[in-house]
Design goal:
Length: 108
């Protein structure tokens, strides 16, 4: 299994929840949500995490050694900040790490 760096972001549209452990995210997620593919889960470096729904539980893992979804996560976090802070001047060149920190200020 590849490294997963925290926080983990559970994202459905522009709804974002962050977790500092795999266990906490797994307890939060519902198998039906995973089966219906209603959202995605990323680590803080842009790895798209794999979700496996088993009966009444969800398991999270990663097969990405190198983050392959950085730009996808950057866009989601950027759009979230733009809407929640009503910040039309937010710099599109911000690094992912900056966006992660700013989103955590809002959702925690």
């Amino acid at each position: 299994m590849a490294t997963i760096l925290f926080p983990i972001f559970v994202i459905e549209g522009l709804d974002i929840v962050a977790f500092n452990s795999i266990e906490a995210a797994e307890q939060f997620l519902e198998p039906w949500w995973v089966k219906e593919k209603l959202g995605k889960v990323y680590d803080s470096e842009g790895r798209l995490l794999e979700l496996i729904a088993e009966d009444s539980t969800v398991k999270i893992s990663s097969s990405e050694e190198i983050p392959m979804h950085i730009s996808e996560l950057r866009k989601i976090l950027f759009d979230f900040l733009k809407i929640t802070r009503n910040d039309q001047c937010l710099d599109t060149n911000h690094e992912l790490s900056y966006l992660v920190k700013e989103v955590l200020k809002i959702i925690k």
